[in-house]
Amino acid sequence: MLHHMIEIVLPVIISICELIGIFVVVVSTMRAFYRYLKGLVTHQPMNVKFELAQGLGLGLEFKMASEILKTVLVQSVEELVILGAVILLRALVAVLIHFEMRTDEHHNK
Fold first, then answer.
1. What secondary structure does DSSP assign to 34-52, as a single string?
2. How far apart (Å, rounded) are the C-alpha atoms in residues 92 and 73?
3. CA angle, 96 as apex, 90 and 102 as ends, to 5°?
């Protein structure tokens, strides 16, 4: 019974996590682009790169959460290998984004 309930509820939760991740990326991108345009008009330096990287990193964390939740629904070894590769790639991108943020933060000090 619990297994059946998980199979029904978990895809909805996974979809919600993915939608939140997409929403965070879209809003962060639009906000960073607005600040970029504002900086062009006002000629004030804006730290758009750092702000965009933060949003991308957060959005990626939500997407990785959904991938981790998908591991509960895996039914074959092939699916597990593909899911593991996706999680590994997303984790690598998240680490690179965080590294870029730290490098940019130290460079601006």
1. HHHHHHHHH-----HHHHH
2. 23
3. 140
User: pLDDT digits over 28-55, tens only?
Assistant: 999 999 999 999 998 888 788 888 888 9
Closest CA to 66 of 86, 82, 80: 86
Could you give phi then psi for residue 103, rounded to 5 degrees? -65, -45
pTM: predicted TM-score of the whole model, two decimal places:
0.78
Q: How far apart are CA 17 and CA 5, in angstroms?
A: 18
Six-digit token string for 45? 């330096």
Residue whose pair of structure tokens reads 């939140």 in the numeric block: 20
Which pair of structure tokens corresponds to residue 21? 């991740």
In the block, residue with structure tokens 């309930």: 5
pLDDT of residue 5: 84
